[in-house]
Structures
1.
Amino acid sequence: MAEAAGVSRTTVSFVLNDRPGAAISETTRQRVLQAAATLGYVPSPEARALKTGRSDIVLCLLPDWPITGPLGVLLKKLSAHLAEAGLTMFSHQRNAVDDLTQVLQSTTPAAVVAMCDLTPAEAAFAQQRGVHLVAWMGVIPGYPDEAGLRQSDVGRLQVSALAGLGHERVAYVLPHDTDLAWFSDPRRDGASERAAELGLAFEHVRLTDDVGSTTGLVDGLTTSGTTGVCAYNDEVAFSVVKAAQRLGREVPRDLSVVGVDDSVIGRLSEPSITTVSFELAHEAENLAALLAVGRNLPARSSARPAEVIRLVPRASTAPPGRA
Amino acid sequence: MAEAAGVSRTTVSFVLNDRPGAAISETTRQRVLQAAATLGYVPSPEARALKTGRSDIVLCLLPDWPITGPLGVLLKKLSAHLAEAGLTMFSHQRNAVDDLTQVLQSTTPAAVVAMCDLTPAEAAFAQQRGVHLVAWMGVIPGYPDEAGLRQSDVGRLQVSALAGLGHERVAYVLPHDTDLAWFSDPRRDGASERAAELGLAFEHVRLTDDVGSTTGLVDGLTTSGTTGVCAYNDEVAFSVVKAAQRLGREVPRDLSVVGVDDSVIGRLSEPSITTVSFELAHEAENLAALLAVGRNLPARSSARPAEVIRLVPRASTAPPGRA
DNA sequence: GCTCCTTGGTAACACGTGTTAGTAATACGT
DNA sequence: ACGTATTACTAACACGTGTTACCAAGGAGC
């Protein structure tokens, strides 16, 4: 394109990249910019990536499940922050067919943020390709977890909330959908740990495909003396509440329920459902800064928020047996 | 890498790409594959893309909102299908900062499927770069809509369902979240059109941020004689049902409600909520075939399903006034 | 006038691949 | 024995960019 502007290709490169040490007269500079504008010229991303060794892409590796709730919002914000730094964010949902090794044969991103666990082979492959790896909610062998948030902490907070009200027998209710196992299992394990620390009785059950069977499951829990239930999310919490009500039990008098996500369904439920809310607004900034190292991005927000998860007390929890 | 296998680079390229017209002895072929395996060699995606003019990426351009429900499932399936064809699917949520023009400066994908509307400038830019554009649920100036699904059809189906039961005054209830406008407006407009065709009275209201105000909105609807409500989705439908019940109205006797998405909340609601379900399983195949033209993908599924949306009758709808 | 330094710019290499054209060796037909 | 066809392979170019090394012109210092 430069040739059409009466100047060498090198000069164009210098102008467009604002090369620090280069000496370009203002007139030439303007001529180049003018020509680029009229021709609609943009550099080839592949050639640039080939030469520099990495592209402008930040790959967001997600677990194999539909994105919704607070995490969806985080992705949106992260994408916007990265765009300001000149980086383009792509998402890629984890998939049975192609792992990170396969994906990296389609592009060489500037960075990969792992929101799901990576195998040592995947990590090694990315490292060999010179790809910047960031573990955020996902575990990468040999890398520190950059997330202020562990799924197990969610479970721990739920149990702590119930324990604070005096409950001594608690249970965790998992969703039917096994796609969610990657999220639900750590939450349950965190809850289990916390219950053990506090000396509470703990058990867990998983919902089945059949909606009607939830009633039986909840009946089993209450008859065994459980007074507090941690649900995987507000949707599961809602179905537990419904089942308890079908059984003639009253929430929270006979059974306290804690959900996760602070979603509309929990707010509209009767009684409204105590839940765990995510405060991910600052995390998006932090992550962006972490990914765009060496880019012109506003400095990483000074302090990490002490807690990225927060309990939202509502009507579905109370001391056991209307103490 | 080839040099380490005692063979020329060209031969490596021929072997790894299974070049049709090439003559390679079996021993050499094995030697190359062996060397590639031991060295862990994979071709540079950028160099390949630079040479061939396009990469293995299928970019999925999404509207600016969190993905959930049936569309999330579709994306997952599409990604798997494309992976089988050797293509890697990335998603990119529409963003205020970077439009398609910006994105295409980070990579040159094999194809872009537009699930949101594109400006003429964006379409022209993609065309100039030789990117295969497919309009699926999104409008691209000058391109045919490949989706068997229009959002307006959802609204039309909802109104038709209510009309079939004898309702003569219907209303559309939109969600508060304006991020969803891209989806909700076409649904409302389709409903409006259908109502006009059938000679029904039609109006629409939008929920506000304040959950409590929903009661007032629903009260207004019923006092004005509305007997049937089409909700943007099951969540909105649920909140309408709750509001009606708070007002002492009975569903479906005093008010029929139709949602969208066939989600858990609608199934668990009392009464359960009549909804519109999406059958997108075949669409994923069709889309994949459309995107992977010239690739070794199983042929496009023979027949298009007649209907990709389907009404699921449940307890929240009945003839008006318990006819 | 000669050398040295700064300003403004360019020629040429390298990135790693796909592809075309070409070469050496062997087989085949007569 | 000679021309032709086939097999097996390779040299060399091109893709579009970033970057290093180099060159020309003009002024400053002596």
Note: Chain B touches chain A through 57 residues (CB under 8 Å).
2.
Amino acid sequence: MSGRPTLRTVAAKAGVSHQTVSRVVNGDPTVTDGIRDKVLSAMRVLDYRPSAGARALASGRTEVVGVVLPHNPGFAFSNDHLIRLVGGADQELAARGYGLLLSTREVPDDAASAHRRFTRRRQVDGLLVEAGAGGEALPALRSAGYPTVVIGYTDEDVYRVHPDDEGGAYAVTQHLLALGHRRIGVVNGPVENRLAMAARLRGLRRAFADARRTIPDDLVEHGDFTAASGYAAAGRLMTRPEPPTAIFAFNDSMAFGAMRWLREHGRALPTDVSVAGFDDTTAAELVDPALTSVSLHSADVGRLAARILLDVLDGRPPAQRENVTPSTLEVRASTAPPPMPN
Amino acid sequence: MSGRPTLRTVAAKAGVSHQTVSRVVNGDPTVTDGIRDKVLSAMRVLDYRPSAGARALASGRTEVVGVVLPHNPGFAFSNDHLIRLVGGADQELAARGYGLLLSTREVPDDAASAHRRFTRRRQVDGLLVEAGAGGEALPALRSAGYPTVVIGYTDEDVYRVHPDDEGGAYAVTQHLLALGHRRIGVVNGPVENRLAMAARLRGLRRAFADARRTIPDDLVEHGDFTAASGYAAAGRLMTRPEPPTAIFAFNDSMAFGAMRWLREHGRALPTDVSVAGFDDTTAAELVDPALTSVSLHSADVGRLAARILLDVLDGRPPAQRENVTPSTLEVRASTAPPPMPN
DNA sequence: TTCCTGAGCGCCCAGATCAAG
DNA sequence: ACTTGATCTGGGCGCTCAGGA
């Protein structure tokens, strides 16, 4: 006597069997129109709502996917990226009637905790895992039989989706070369993201090669994605005997740090030195000069990852494991031709 | 023959009844130690995992709460705020064994859609709703019997949690007054957020009153939380006969817009004009000069909202409907004493 | 074809049972 | 024989699926 109507309550009211009501609820096309109307109006009158729990129990599917995100404030991934990722995934999942069970994870912590929250209770049909949040747990997930799509880069042989980091870096480099820059300083990212960083370096090298220019190999510095590390890297680059005329930082935060170093040391932006970033965070267009950066279109990444997972769940797995979404160069005021040598 | 072990499988292996296994799983203290050990080892050997669906069906509770967020890129709420909110809520929910089902919502859209995704299928025990994402649907939710906690401001008589906007605005104003500013221009936010904006105005007025200063009532402009509107508002403020010496924008984006206007019109920051914002987004410390702003400690807001919802679900509802989390002033380089009149 | 019937899915709850004090 | 505490038994939560009418 919980009060809520069930399939059978509705069936009794509509004068049909519970199974017929089930067919109506699930949009079975073999239901006669007259019966369907009767059932629908009974459902409306009783304010019937199906029970996800009962359905999950009987069918073995929950129609919910788990999303595992890293959650380490101010490090590695921008909040902009994460929230757009989730928004895109949610949009795609909602369109197909799926729910999104979220688990954030403090990144240095017990390895498998976030996934286990889902899989230990069998509340999800599959998983979307941000690479930084749990690449190391993938074998366990696979053996547990959970279809998984990784968002980002991984060595594991799983479905994965990532933005076109190589293409983005290519576009930045090409843009800087076209402006006339020859000595381009690079602020590389941390080893935790070595696969994404490798892709960006490939794009950089390819752009130099296509322009038939030799890449100055003494101009790569490392940072850890924080503004402070970008500041320090800019200092190291600019105090070399032959400093660069442009700095390409592998994320926006480091680019902002580099801009700060340059301003504090009397360089005019962008006339003395150009700066470009990566990720196109909201801050990029708010700083002065606005930062040229690569937009990853994070919502598209989330959408595609969700679509692939749903396709796998529907039994039509995509042909390729690795899927790439386009990224685009956003040219803003922070990049300009290098100063004339005189 | 799905393969997965059930309570009864474990029971058979351990030589006890299924109900005893259930008691072990649920931590019933009346289980004898010897039996508990036998059951636990059987569970381990069989890799038993409880089925959330079956449990939900039998108990009527899902141990999942729904979180409804607005999702309108670049407007009204910063991504920083949202993601920290969710992170805090998730942390609290996870600690009590609850899951977090997320639904993002494009804000101008069909009113109740996001909540209905949860409630129509009865997959959640309660809801956390961002005020901007669904205040208008609250009566419907309440009548449907879903315990709900609103994050933000609302006129409805529901549990709600919001940061101390009034205190934050008080702190900013007091800070500016202490620096010597008398004419403080205000860039107010949009009417959609009128309750939060009213709280900030109260803080502003109280600070003037406590300092025994009269508030210049001709220095309030409106914006819509975008940088462009902050830019325009700054223009209107600074071209008055007696322009302000400081601008207090009711969010960071508008503050950035104001900074841009000031720079483009030859004002030195902060020596000619001070600027303060609200929300303390990541961009605040990346711009130059770094922006003085009010930190809302969004994760704390999310945590408290989750805790209140869980308390309601546990049958021990808090005494008060309205709950406020502290916000703090982050003083940075964008605020300084006004120029000496000469 | 369209609809119906019956048997579970894996769990929780209530009441029955059984060992001890 | 009469509590008290630990364990067991049966029924049913609301749905889907297979097979029959």
Note: The domain at 165-296 of chain A is CATH 3.40.50.2300 (Rossmann fold).
